[in-house]
Design brief:
Order of helices and strands: HHHH
Shape: elongated
Strand content: under 5%
Helix content: over 70%
Largest sheet: none
């Protein structure tokens, strides 16, 4: 729950809290779609499974990109105000790399799009996701 600390405008703080929560929800949705796409890939025939996997992974990528809109706004404000912890920059770097490689996978332009490289990509995205959840919990006061 949002705790108003008397700094700034309560309405603005509430809007920022809600946007932060929506962004996290989009990321969780993306993670669930990625996991579901792996299940579809394993359970269906090779041709049908790959097609379904690709469509679901594209949907997850789209949700991840939509969630970045708030993150960019938040990171910009923290950087300008000089209050950005160093973990924000690390998270942003890993996130940018994940999104760039994800884009290449989604548009299917990577000639060495192999299972191994996709697993590396998934591991990088999960690392970035975990860091983002930790940042979210810290900013909302649920972690010290």
């Amino acid at each position: 729950m949002l705790k108003w600390k008397g700094r700034g405008n309560l309405v603005v703080e509430t809007i920022i809290y809600n946007l932060r929560t929506i962004s996290l929800g989009l990321q969780i949705g993306a993670l669930l779609l990625f996991l579901l796409s792996l299940i579809v890939l394993k359970n269906e025939s090779k041709k049908g499974g790959i097609t379904g996997h690709g469509k679901m992974a594209t949907g997850g990528y789209t949700l991840a990109v939509l969630s970045v809109i708030y993150m960019l706004y938040s990171a910009y404000n923290l950087t300008i105000s000089g209050r950005a912890p160093s973990v924000i920059y690390t998270h942003g770097l890993f996130g940018a790399v994940s999104l760039a490689f994800g884009f290449i996978f989604v548009i299917n332009r990577w000639s060495w799009k192999t299972r191994r490289n996709m697993r590396i990509m998934l591991a990088l995205w999960v690392l970035t996701f975990t860091g983002g959840v930790m940042i979210y919990l810290t900013f909302t006061g649920k972690l010290p």
